[in-house]
Amino acid sequence: MNDQQLLRYARHILLDEFGYEAQEKVCAASALIVGAGGLGSPAAAYLAASGVRRLVLADDDQVELSNLQRQILHTTDRIGHHKAESGRTMLQALNPEIEVVALVERLSGDALLEQVRQADVVLDCTDNFATRHAINRACVSCRKPLVSGAAIRFDGQVSVFDMRRDDAPCYHCLFPEAEEAVELNCATSGVFAPLVGIVGSLQAAEALKILASVGDTLAGRLLLLDAFSMQWRTVRVARDPACPVCGHYQ
Ligand SMILES: [Zn+2]
């Protein structure tokens, strides 16, 4: 790290549990963030500010007025712009030292696999089950750690599916695709603005610890937040030996 970097990341380097080595790992790492909305905004902002060397931000949507209540990467004057590009503008202003790649596309198939393969950690900041399961499959296939977040109304959840570990559950173990899933989204159900900030920030925290190899992550645990009563709960998540997605590795 040069003098500017030592100063920029000084408060991380000061942490006994983090320090110079962890910051160096972060500065050499890459992260894929799928979704530049409510969760992706704080997640990407903290990863950029923390100096993750290469951030790939994928989203095919455009900024709308109703996004601005919570999607803090975007600004009023960028309504109509692609979220991935609007996000890149904000992230590069936060930290010009890092590389930010804006992908204006809904990642799927080989393109998704290729991006997951190139990433050290993947953050699922999307809002629909089909994409979540596609991201999970790619992470299982490439054995990459997946940090998953979700927020709707006043309810948030975060977990880590660390596919580098043989005993780790995957997203499908927890939320089997075959089940009749009632898809809620913010457009119809509403969402409390700071909730996505909390959940997205938790995703950034888990991703940074994974990249830096410090602390304990939420691997094997699901963290649930009721932001209305402000109560947290943690539930254990076990690997499903019969899971059709990750069962291959048993
Ligand atoms: Zn599984």
From TrEMBL:
Annotated THIF-type NAD/FAD binding fold domain residues: 9-245
Catalyzed reactions per annotation: [molybdopterin-synthase sulfur-carrier protein]-C-terminal Gly-Gly + ATP + H(+) = [molybdopterin-synthase sulfur-carrier protein]-C-terminal Gly-Gly-AMP + diphosphate
Family: Belongs to the HesA/MoeB/ThiF family.
GO cellular component: cytosol
Keywords: ATP-binding, Nucleotide-binding, Transferase
Protein name per the record: Molybdopterin-synthase adenylyltransferase
Subunit structure: Homodimer. Forms a stable heterotetrameric complex of 2 MoeB and 2 MoaD during adenylation of MoaD.
Any single Pfam family the record assigns to this protein: ThiF
NCBIfam families in alphabetical order: PRK05690.1
Enzyme class: transferase
One MF annotation (Gene Ontology) recorded for this entry: sulfotransferase activity
Function of the protein: Catalyzes the adenylation by ATP of the carboxyl group of the C-terminal glycine of sulfur carrier protein MoaD.
PANTHER family with a match to the protein in the record: SULFUR CARRIER PROTEIN THIS ADENYLYLTRANSFERASE, UBIQUITIN-ACTIVATING ENZYME E1
Originating species: Corticimicrobacter populi
UniProt EC number: 2.7.7.80
Annotated InterPro entries: ThiF/MoeB/HesA, ThiF_NAD_FAD-bd, Ubiquitin-activating_enz
SUPFAM superfamilies recorded: Activating enzymes of the ubiquitin-like proteins
